[in-house]
C-alpha cells in the first residue's frame, strides 16, 4: 500500500510539472496574440453610413468622388447617422471631393435635421433620428486609442467590399480542460492518505482562465429615453443595438472611454470671437479678471457643434489667435484652454486686431459656418492706441456683428491722449446701446456676463449679419417681346444668371424670383420655390422665350402682386427690370406704386428702350438705378456696377 501511495505522489507531481509548463507556454502564446497591432487608418466607401459603424469615435480614410448626390447626407454641421460618412465630410468642408482622412464622433440624436447646400453637396432634411455624428479633421486626441479596424453592426457590411479592415464580434473562447493550468492549491488538495487512487479535480468551466479574455465590467449605462449612443465607449454590449450579449469587440477592451460631448444650445448658434486686451498697461490681475469673464461666457453659452462656437484672439502690438472656432467643441475644453492663456504685452492696437479678425478668423478653415452669424466681442482697457473706425466699417460690411466692452475709460486729464474720441460708437454694429457695454471698474466686469450672453444669442437682433448679398428678395422682370429674339433672350438670361451668382442664396438669405412679360405676364418661379443657388441657376436656364408685345407697366403691377406681395418683412425688396423697347402702356403709376411699397427698382434698357421711361421706372436717384446698353452682348459689363450700387446703398443705411 505504501508503495502505491508513493507511486501516486510521483505521478501527481509529474503531471503538475507537465501542466505547469503547458500553462506557461499557453500564457506566452496568449501574450503574443494580444499584442497591439500598429495603428492603421481604416478605409471606407462613399456609401458607408455612420449608423452602420458601431465605434463611438474613429478615424477613417474616404476615397475620392464622395460629392456625388447618390450618397445621401441628412443635416447641416450635425448629421443624422443615416448619412454617408464621407458625403457629410465633403458637405461640412473638412474634405473636398479628392477624399482624405477624417475624425468622426458620434453624438446624440436630434428632433430635426435641416438640409442645406454646401461645398457642392445638397444635404437633405430629416424630422428625427436616433443618433447623430459630427466630422472633424483627423487630429487624434492625446491618450485616446482609435480602432485600426471598424466594428460594423453587420458582419456583411458593404464597407468590406472596399478592402478595408472590418471586424465582427467574436465570442470569447470557453476554456478547454486540457489547456487549463493546475494551481498549487489544487495540487495540495489531493488526498493521499486514502488507499484508493486519487483523481485530480476537473476545473470548472466558469473558473477564471489565464488564456481567455475576461468581459469588462460595465462602467455606466445608456439612457433608455433615446435609442442612440453618445461619444462614450459602450459600457455593455447588451446596450448596443443588434449586439450579441456574448460578443465583445476587441477595441472595447483597450480604447479609452470618451466623455459625452454636448451638441450645444441650438437657440444660440453663433460663431463668436473674443478680442481680449493683452496690452502691458492692463496688468496681470486685470488680465486674470478678463479671463474669468471669458470662462463664464464659455460655460453659459453651452458650446457645441449644433450651437455656439468660440475662439479667442489676443491683441497688443499685434494680434494672435489662441484658438479658432473648431479647436474646442465643448465648454469644458474651452474653459481649460482659456485658463492657459498668458498675457502678451505691448500697446493696445484694437483697429489692427479687428482687421486681422475680418481677414483671417472667420474662414471655413477656422471652422466658420455659413449658417451661423459672426460675432466679435472686443474688450478694451481704457482706450485703443490706434484708430478703429475704418477697420470696423469693413468688418460690418463683411457681416460681422461687433460688440465693445470698455473698462475704466479715460479720466478728464487723460482724454488728450485718446487717439480716436467716441471710438466705441464708431466701431459697433449699431449705435443704439445694444452692442456697447461700459464698465466703471474691473471689479464690476462680472455683471456684464448675463446681459452679454443674452445679447449675442439674440440672433434676430444681430443686424450686421445681414449684408447686401444675403438679405434681399430679388425679382427679375424680363422682357420676352418679339423684338428681343431667341438668341438675345438667352443673352438676357445669362445676364440674370451672372447677377444671381453674386448673391448668397438660401431660404434665410437672398431669395430670387422671376417674371416674363409681353402683352401678358407669366410667373416663371416665386421667391419660395427654390432655396439653393444651383436650383435657382437651373430654373433660370429653363425659362422659355415667349414672344409678343411690350406692356411694361402691367408687368410691374404683376410683379408687385405675384412676387413682392409674398416677400418677407425683414428682406430688402429689389426689382431688376430688363427691357429692349418702349412700353405699349403707361409705366408711371405702376412705378410709383413700386416705390411707395418700398421696392427698390433697377431699370436696364437695351437697344430701342426709351431712356426717359427707364428713369421713371428706376428708384431715385435715377443715375444709380437706371442703365442703358446699346447691344445685348454688352449687358455683362454692367454686372459689377449694379452689384456695387446695391451694396453701396445697403451700407449707407443709418446705424442707429
TrEMBL record:
Sequence segments annotated as region (Disordered): 150-174, 199-261
One Pfam short name: VWA
Residue intervals of the LCCL domain: 40-133
Subcellular localization(s) per the UniProt record: Secreted, Extracellular space, Extracellular matrix
Record's compositionally biased regions (Polar residues): 150-168, 229-240
Keyword tags: Disulfide bond, Extracellular matrix, Glycoprotein, Neurogenesis, Repeat, Secreted, Signal
Superkingdom assignment: Eukaryota
This protein's record includes keyword Transcription: no
Stretches assigned to the VWFA domain: 271-456, 473-646
Bias kind Basic and acidic residues: ranges: 214-225
GO CC annotation: interstitial matrix
UniProt signal peptide: 1-26
One GO term of the biological process aspect: extracellular matrix organization
CDD domains per record: vWA_collagen (cd01472)
Function: Promotes matrix assembly and cell adhesiveness. Plays a role in spinal cord formation by regulating the proliferation and differentiation of neural stem cells.
Assembly and interaction partners: Binds dermatan sulfate and chondroitin sulfate.
Protein name from the UniProt record: Vitrin
Gene: VIT
